[in-house]
Amino acid sequence: MESMGKKKSRPRRSFTPEFKAGIVELCRRGDRSVGQVAKDFDLTETAVRLWVSQAEVDAGERDGLSSSEREELAALRRENRRLREDVEFLKRATAFFAKETR
């Protein structure tokens, strides 16, 4: 009764860019719907739709951040977070040494 109406969660999987490109190509051909392609390959329909959408952005057919821009943005955010942590550490070290020299 506890899981009534709830779907089992599936473990997070990762796919190669080549696999994603193949799935997107199958969807673009128009032989099968996105839902059917997802079902045939045991994928979620949402994931397949996101892959198709991202492929359209990368091809310039739709507005949005391309895959390379997304990667660059993620890298810049990581670097920004690291630099903020460094600044915070340096502030604390400065305060510590300023207190020690008085």
Total number of helices: 4
The residue fraction in helices comes out at: 55-70%
CATH class of the largest domain: Mainly Alpha
Overall tally of domains: 2
**Helix/strand structural class:** mainly alpha
Could you explain the architecture of this structure?
The protein has 102 residues and is mainly α. The chain has 2 domains: 15-64, Orthogonal Bundle (Arc Repressor Mutant, subunit A); 66-102. 67% of the residues lie in helices and 0% in strands. The chain is built from 4 helices and no strands. The protein has helices at residues 17-29, 34-40, 45-58, 67-100. Helix 1 (17-29) crosses helix 3 and helix 2 (34-40) crosses helix 3. The longest helix is centred in the last third of the chain and has 34 residues, at 67-100. It is elongated and about 75 Å long. The termini are far apart. The model has no long low-confidence stretch (mean pLDDT 91).
Could you provide a short overview of the structure?
The chain has 102 residues and is mostly helical.
List the helices and strands and how they pair.
Layout: H1 17-29, H2 34-40, H3 45-58, H4 67-100
Helix pairs in contact: 1-3, 2-3
